[in-house]
């Protein structure tokens, strides 16, 4: 990366979180990484479309459920890889192969059928996603890429986070709901 590009991302990394190494990692997913970096150098607010399946997979979930998953990953789990919010969805960057395996794991856990876990859009090999720009335009990074080789969660970790987030949202009681029309008598005062 040229010195001017490093300076460009160095100035913004304090505010936006995307570092020069993180931008290089994102660009490495594309066919022409240097062209991608040149585009971001000229237009740092430009989101781009990148292919999935080589450098990363992306699991796209509704924003609120994505926040719950992220809370579980950071509060009780190992943390997460890069995470962005783009057009009302949370984009969880995951290890390559996750998009293929995660849906079958959810079916096996039977959370896909109960509706507790909303439909997850899994983008893997052969898919492409719009990646937020290094600077916010209509998107933002919750966990910005900051290294050339960020840690990316696999399907088992994202399954764990989705199940935990769904269980936290659904309160299950072993007691039947109270019958609101029942007549209740106070028997404590009877002889």
Descriptive notes:
- This protein is an alpha+beta fold and 191 residues long.
- It has one domain.
- 40% of the residues lie in helices and 17% in strands.
- A hairpin with a 2-residue loop joins strand 3 (83-86) and strand 4.
- Helix 2 packs across helix 3 and helix 4 packs across helix 7 (155-169).
- The longest helix has 15 residues, at 155-169.
- The radius of gyration is 22 Å and the shape is elongated.
- The termini are far apart.
- The model is unreliable at 11-15 (pLDDT under 50).
Radius of gyration: 22 Å
Backbone shape = elongated
What proportion strand? 15-25%
Strand line-up across the major sheet: 5-2-4-3-7
- Alpha-beta classification: alpha+beta
**Termini separation:** 89 Å
| Portion in helices | 40-55%
Whole-number tally of structural domains: 1
Q: What number is the mean pLDDT?
A: 83
Order of helices and strands: HHHEEHEEHHEEEH
Number of DSSP E strands? 7
Topology diagram in text:
Elements: H1 3-16, H2 20-28, H3 33-42, E1 48-51, E2 57-62, H4 63-75, E3 83-86, E4 89-94, H5 98-109, H6 111-114, E5 121-123, E6 128-131, E7 139-143, H7 155-169
Antiparallel strand pairs: 1-6, 2-4, 2-5, 3-4, 3-7
Question: Features of this protein?
Answer:
191 residues; alpha+beta; 5-stranded antiparallel sheet; 7 helices; 7 strands; elongated
In short:
The protein is α+β, with helices and mostly antiparallel strands and 191 residues long. It is 40% helix and 17% strand.
